[in-house]
Amino acid sequence: MEAAINNRYDFIYLFDVQDGNPNGDPDAGNLPRVDPETGEGLVSDVCLKRKVRNFVQIVKGYEKPYDIFIKEKAILNNSITEAHKQEGVKDIKEKGDKTEAARQWMCRNFYDIRTFGAVLSTGENAGQVRGPIQFTFARSINPIVTAEHSITRMAVATDDEAKKQSGDNRTMGRKFTVPYGLYKANGFISAHLAAQTGFNEEDLNLFWDSLKNMFDHDHSAARGMMNARKLIVFKHSTALGNASAHTLFSLVKVQLKDDQRPPRSFDDYIVTIDKDKLPEGIEVLDMI
């Protein structure tokens, strides 16, 4: 595989939802996640990483070195056991060396481990991996309103349910949506951790493609209309970095054009980058 990336990156990712639930909260009856004090909507980092994994599966299948470790119905310990059976791993006697060899094999063959990291000590020990890419929770720019809808199903699931109905077999349900919300997630890419996992330029380009396109392959009745709107990347000229992430993030402003009415589309916002205050050694890449 090619050499790992040697530049640090920080990025801002803007995406929106219209008439959908971007990330249901299982602790709240699958209502859209929300900050109870501010009313701002939330989407977890785990949710975003899942969509990246799904996109990589579509593009690359399950072929190594782009296999996905955390995938639907996966038995994780089976993959870890497979690593311990590989040439260059199985014959190592010293426990620590064998664990490290298994960890390296997992990094080489699983894209999401190389990218996000993983705990690989749940069965045969392959250690732990800190991934070079991390997200914050995405937070909506403005408070969201959760709309609750009653829905009707013209069928029942069992004979017992049918006996309880009046004869038309109608059953009622609930659906929750956000009329509109623009969300912002901050992201960080560490060249130091990329060197430990082997995360390279090809992996990085695949990650950018995922952020640009993953919502187009994730449509469902529950999620409504979701779109990637902005991907603003700050590329540092060094591996250590040339400025703090919060300094760079503060250069990007997302504001309503008219704060007297609720937003209902991305066109209701204006996004600006104050490039005059850009620190030395930083390049801005406006990818979307």
Automatic annotation (TrEMBL):
<protein>
    <submittedName>
        <fullName>Type I-C CRISPR-associated protein Cas7/Csd2</fullName>
    </submittedName>
</protein>
<dbReference type="Pfam" id="PF05107">
    <property type="entry name" value="Cas_Cas7"/>
</dbReference>
<dbReference type="GO" id="GO:0043571">
    <property type="term" value="P:maintenance of CRISPR repeat elements"/>
</dbReference>
<dbReference type="InterPro" id="IPR006482">
    <property type="entry name" value="Cas7_Csh2/Csh2"/>
</dbReference>
<dbReference type="InterPro" id="IPR013418">
    <property type="entry name" value="CRISPR-assoc_prot_Cas7/Csd2"/>
</dbReference>
